[in-house]
Design brief:
- With 170 residues, the chain is an all-alpha fold.
- It has 4 helices and no strands.
- The protein has one domain (2-167).
- The model has no long low-confidence stretch (mean pLDDT 92).
């Protein structure tokens, strides 16, 4: 039971660290892009600024909501390990993490489509606003791919630990 407690703690600590990094990264990139926009007042940088600021806000709001949700979920899991319903609780958590792991491929495909379509927009649009927004979407999608790669690896490891805790002989 101690190993599964360690696995739960490690997974949710990784989630917390990732979410704090996302928030910090969003603030840093947003600050840089606002400074860029103040320096070069052009339609492209203005559109890029709005795109990046909106993306940073979206990522930060998502990260903050996950921080609150994960803290509650972690506490529920850890307190439930000492009850007679621990097997059901771990089974439910394994089902949740199976769903999470299964969605990463979809997220990667969506990000790849956004990147490809945005690259076309950058090269083939004559409007600087469209190019600025497209560059912002490329940055967002690359960031999302990097975040998801880290998250997916951690989730697969956690999934494996849950599976072994439930189905390995004692």
């Amino acid at each position: 039971m101690e190993s599964i407690q360690s696995a739960i703690n490690a997974y949710f600590l990784g989630e917390r660290t990732e979410m704090i990094s996302v928030i910090a990264g969003s603030v840093i990139v947003s600050t840089c892009i606002v400074l860029l926009n103040r320096r070069y007042r052009h339609n492209l940088t203005r559109a890029l600024s709005w795109s990046v600021l909106f993306s940073g806000l979206l990522l930060s709001v998502t990260a903050i909501s996950l921080l609150f949700r994960d803290a509650e979920l972690r506490n529920t899991l850890l307190s439930g390990l000492s009850t007679s319903h621990s097997i059901e609780l771990l089974t439910t958590e394994l089902q949740r993490i199976n769903t999470v792991v299964g969605k990463y491929h979809i997220y990667q495909c969506v990000s790849a489509c956004i990147i490809v379509s945005s690259i076309f927009a950058v090269f083939f649009s004559k409007y600087s606003n469209v190019r600025g927004i497209s560059i912002g979407l490329i940055l967002l999608s690359i960031a999302q791919l990097m975040i998801d790669d880290y998250s997916e690896n951690r989730a697969i490891q956690y999934q494996s630990q849950l599976f072994h805790a439930l189905y390995s002989p004692p």
